[in-house]
């Protein structure tokens, strides 16, 4: 099975990036990710991310720049992960699909265990290439 997933690399005014840990019971539980989710039929990545962030975290974002996509084979599922840079607009974070979230500096990203599909984006962020 192949699924298309969008992830938002959300920054705040201080330049920190929002990361979240997948909660127990979900695929990749315990690993950190950039929040987002599966594209629904007829939806583009920007619409998907606006919807997912409101559903999963109750926050409003503005995705504004596509950072490309990476394929990852999880065995039972192959995912195409599309990442977008996004601006945090507002709303107080209320978690439903995650059991933790943090605003982190790029230099702190190495301290977290990310879902394998996210690693190429994490590396680019760490090197400040995006
Ligand atoms: N959202 C998100 N999912 C990721 C990332 N990296 C990564 O490997 N995944 C995987 C985990 C899941 O297998 C899949 C996304 O599923 P999901 O559970 O977040 O999506 P969803 O909210 O639409 O799904 P559902 O729980 O409603 O079924 O992609 C990432 O950075 N963000």
UniProtKB/TrEMBL annotation:
Belongs to the Nudix hydrolase family. The keyword Repeat does not apply. NCBIfam families: mutt. Its EC number is 3.6.1.55. This is 8-oxo-dGTP diphosphatase. It comes from Paenibacillus tianjinensis. PANTHER family: 8-OXO-DGTP DIPHOSPHATASE, NUDIX HYDROLASE FAMILY PROTEIN. Its cofactor is Mg(2+). Keywords: DNA damage, DNA repair, DNA replication, Hydrolase, Magnesium, Metal-binding, Mutator protein. It comes from the Bacteria. InterPro entries: Mutator_MutT, MutT-like, MutY_C, Nudix_hydrolase, NUDIX_hydrolase-like_dom_sf, NUDIX_hydrolase_CS, NUDIX_hydrolase_dom. Transmembrane segments: none annotated. It catalyses: 8-oxo-dGTP + H2O = 8-oxo-dGMP + diphosphate + H(+). Residues 1-127 form the Nudix hydrolase domain.
């Amino acid at each position: 099975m192949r699924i298309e997933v969008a992830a938002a690399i959300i920054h705040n005014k201080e330049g920190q990036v929002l990361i979240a840990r997948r909660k127990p019971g979900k695929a990749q539980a315990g690993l950190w990710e950039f929040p987002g989710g599966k594209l629904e039929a007829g939806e583009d990545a920007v619409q998907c991310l606006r919807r997912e962030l409101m559903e999963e975290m109750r926050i409003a974002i503005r995705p504004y720049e596509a950072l490309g996509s990476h394929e990852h084979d999880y065995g039972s599922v192959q995912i195409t992960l599309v990442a977008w840079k996004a601006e945090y607009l507002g709303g107080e974070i209320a978690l439903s699909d995650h059991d933790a979230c943090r605003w982190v500096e790029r230099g702190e990203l190495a301290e977290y265990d990310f879902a394998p599909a996210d690693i190429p984006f994490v590396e680019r962020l760490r090197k400040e290439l995006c």
